[in-house]
């Protein structure tokens, strides 16, 4: 015994007819239900927090100009890095003080101290 396969086109047409009927007459929501839903939504909504009056001090205005505490933190980090690099510059950077004063900085530590401390300057034979 074989089962007869239903026609797919007739099922699609029936479904389209049902959906068209649902679109033309949307279900009515009772007013009491809508009032309860809106009251519940109002209850769940967070209330706006009270904002403090903006401070008009000098540091507050400067902080607002640079972007708040995040901007101030970035400026502090950049200042610390600049002081550190300026105080003890890497070998690849020139000495800023010597450039300003117009003379070249001499090496205070000689390279020979490193060689003589291990006796590498003494050769056998």
From TrEMBL:
<protein>
    <recommendedName>
        <fullName>Dihydroorotate dehydrogenase</fullName>
    </recommendedName>
</protein>
């Amino acid at each position: 015994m074989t089962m007869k396969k239903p026609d797919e086109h007739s099922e699609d047409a029936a479904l389209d007819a049902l959906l068209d009927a649902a679109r033309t007459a949307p279900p009515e929501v009772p007013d009491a239900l809508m009032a309860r839903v809106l009251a519940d939504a109002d209850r769940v909504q967070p209330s706006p927090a009270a904002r403090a009056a903006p401070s008009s001090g000098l540091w507050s205005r400067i902080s607002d100009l640079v972007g708040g505490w995040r901007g101030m933190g970035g400026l502090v980090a950049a200042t610390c890095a600049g002081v550190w690099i300026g105080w003890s510059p890497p070998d690849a950077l020139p000495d800023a003080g010597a450039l300003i004063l117009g003379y070249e900085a001499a090496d205070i530590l000689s390279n020979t101290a490193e060689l003589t401390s291990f006796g590498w300057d003494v050769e056998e034979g």
